[in-house]
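FIELD: query
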Amino acid sequence: MTKRDAKDEKKAPKLRFKGFTDDWEQVPLENIIKVNSGRDYKFANPGDIPVYGTGGYMLSIDTKLSDEDAVGIGRKGTINKPFFLKAPFWTVDTLFYLTSRNQNNIHFLLPLFQKINWKRYDESTGVPSLSKSTINKIRVNIPKIEEQRNVALLFQSLDHTITLHEEKRKQLEQLKKALLQKMFADKTNFPEIRFNGYVSPWEQVKLGEIFTECTEKSRDGNEPLLSVTINDGVVKSESLDRKSNASKDKSNYKIVRPNNIAYNSMRMWQGAVGVSNYYGIVSPAYTVISLNETTNSPFFYQYYFKKSSSLNTFRKNSQGLTPDTWNLKYPLFKLIKYRIPQYDEQKKIGQLFQKLDYTINLHDQKIEDLKQLKQALLQQMFI
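FIELD: result
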């Protein structure tokens, strides 16, 4: 790839494949695509032809609206997220499908459309909407077919790699969910799945025999401020892309140390919880607990705070008349009963879920990196 001299008139992108020097041509979209309308599908029978709306795949029917690959773009609702439609397919009436004219490459047109600021063309003061005439008048810059093909292959490869990581992440999440249900004993003393060599029944104990509440308060309010999230657990507040609502007076904030668990005891319905890797403070809305030396932190984190049936148990034992007011402070928390295995089995189970979480996080990071690369290339390889 070569970079264009900044002094040149902007008729080609900053970054392009070697060997291509011709200026790109500016044309209205109606010259290179046909805007087709979606239709009602409810007359059809179930089948294997996918039906798409503005949110993506909906269901499958026995007839097709198009047998030509296209790009879907919302007519109404979500208008700023174009996506590829592999033929044959059907689209509902809130989703246009754009097909190629004059041999223009549909896989080149997809990233071209993803770069367009579609919200700029919103024609409604209410629900976002687009019209065929508005789409047709938008002017874009395109290269000749051969260069389109090269750019298309690059973005196809990127999208394919992102999809592979997303599918792998989904598979790992499904595996984790299944193991959470089968490797922990809920209603009996024996889980459905165990590591070889473990046959002893799990013992029922109160959580107060396992966890101790940590009530140490902030000394001067200058300790690192931590937040507890639903998806990422305990994180540094500065890492969150949101306005801090932390109180100026932090005298009631609670100290959190590495390996402590913090959970939102004031809003149990949110499910914000995590094992901390940091030293810092959290707001009084959280309860901070530590495990005794004969228990394994990764095991209990998964068992009590990631397993859906455990969260339901916590909520049933919470105080409050409505979900918005559910709270589970330590005096109630410590009375809840659970079954647990011996420490060695706890450790093996905890290590398994640590490895699963680590691998899932790797895929998350790779997906984010690839999406950032794609955004950078969209800026550099299109005008």
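FIELD: remark
The CA atoms of residues 49 and 234 lie 44 Å apart.
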